Amino acid sequence: MVEHRPVLTALAHAVLILGVLAVAFPVWLAFVASTHPSTTFLSGLVPLWPGDHWRETYGQMFGTGISTSGAPPLGLMMGNSLIMALSIALGKIAISILSAFAIVFFRFPFRHLAFWLIFVTLMLPVEVRIVPTFKVVADLGMLNSYAGLAVPLIASATATFLFRQFFLTIPDELVEAARIDGAGPLKFFRDILLPLSRTNMAALFVILFIYGWNQYIWPLIVTTDERLYTVVMGIKRMVDVADAEPQWNYVMATATLAMLPPVLVVVAMQRLFVKGLIEQEK
Amino acid sequence: MQSRRATFRSRWLPYVLLAPQLLVTFVFFLWPAGQAVRQSFLREDPFGLSTRFVGLDNYTRLLQDPGYLNSFQVTLVFSVSVAALSIGLALLLAVSADRVIRGHRSYTTLLVWPYAVAPAVAGVLWWFMFNPTIGILPYLLDGLGYDWNDRLKAGDAMILVVLASAWKQVSYNFLFFLAGLQAIPQSLREAAAIDGAGPVKRFVTIVFPLLSPTTFFLLVVNVTYTMFETFAVIDATTGGGPAQATNILVYKVYQDGFIGLNLGSSAAQSVVLMGIVMALTFIQFRFIERRVQY
Fold first, then answer.
1. In Å, how far is A154's CA from the nearest CA of chain B?
2. Residue A17: is it exposed, middle or buried by C-beta count within 10 angstroms (0-12/13-18/19+)?
3. Which CATH number fits domain A75-280: 1.10.1040.10, 3.40.50.720, 3.30.160.20, 1.10.3720.10?
4. pLDDT of residue A131
């Protein structure tokens, strides 16, 4: 702030408070809806204040799910989402750090080609090539499996670039010192590179966990078995009831819990999250 | 490509290290993309019994299809609206947060979390708020004399998906604008203030021009976001309707391929979209090289 202008500062606070409220309002409404019995939604207006029916709603969702709209119990869906998010995040980090290591610390024929092949994946989001990718996964017999949910998504150009960028900043003297001390490439990787990359890995993990948890179209098409539903796509199945209004209290309970883990990750690890987000785009 | 001076020597190890990434890339990215290109030159009969080569026929049909041209137009309106809305709001919030000294960190926390909300969930939340019978917003609009119905009115459906998509994207843009604002040296603003420039003039002549690389970068990222990631918003709410009013290009690829089973046309649409992503990625990387110099 350059000069003292209380009016402008007050205006800034007002804008921010309005912004915070506008951003939170849809989520508040969803939470409120999940605490009322379904009869509330038959007529009239959605309430703005929480009711006392939350135990029944969440109990039912965690206990048995809603068989009429094909939703398995929430715990199962959340577990599937967790497995998918963790496999995607850890898988991407693992294969990307290995490829960045190969590209930066070795000279070998086709090095540039390998780099460009990885780069190309950036230009092929899954939405664009959805039909042929589905066919490949079907031909490999990976439909309705955890491998089918995660493996096709774990190639990562951005993670590879991030690690490559970081590896390029490691001083040559460190590599030479390690070599003089008789460390081979794998020992150097394990004892020097991995510990140095810890912060980068953590920052990347936060971003990729959210990415994995929020996947929608891919689980929607590769799973038809209820036991493999993830929570984000499960909402869609619950909303899609033929010729009837969805059971809003259950839908919103599911939505609330689907948001909870990734939002908690962002809030709890805000610094890592911001670092991951901004560095990923460099 | 940049290289290091000190490297390790091994004939086979780098290939082993690269193998998992390249395998996934080849099997799940390059091969399907190649298949899409191949399929776009073929036509299958409705029973899938025979295919024949039809040259560019799928593409010419696509360009003559009013549904496809409509989808282009819808995508354009959608992308521009989401980008303009979310960038504008984020800039306003970032400028405010940059001005505030006390509580600036808690505001940031309270504004960034929607980044973590899945697009599909964001769609459902707004769909619920705009529900014509029980939603809160139609109730308020009714008080103003407007009869909201996103299931019947094309304009209403578009507004719904734009709001849901922009809501989620504001947090991302906010973070980048805030970082951009904090990178502007304080001395520049002070010098301008001493020369008698008020806050508005300083913003217009100094701050905003210095933010232009960030703004341009966000524009590209937001267009990419609206073109591809918003698939979930559309699918969870309007399903492309009413009457194709929100049928954006990515959604149409999915609809024609999975539901309509028109594989040739869907593949041709995939190829067109790949061209668009390539162009966007190219612009983004060209720009980033300049940003580093800047």
1. 7
2. middle
3. 1.10.3720.10
4. 85
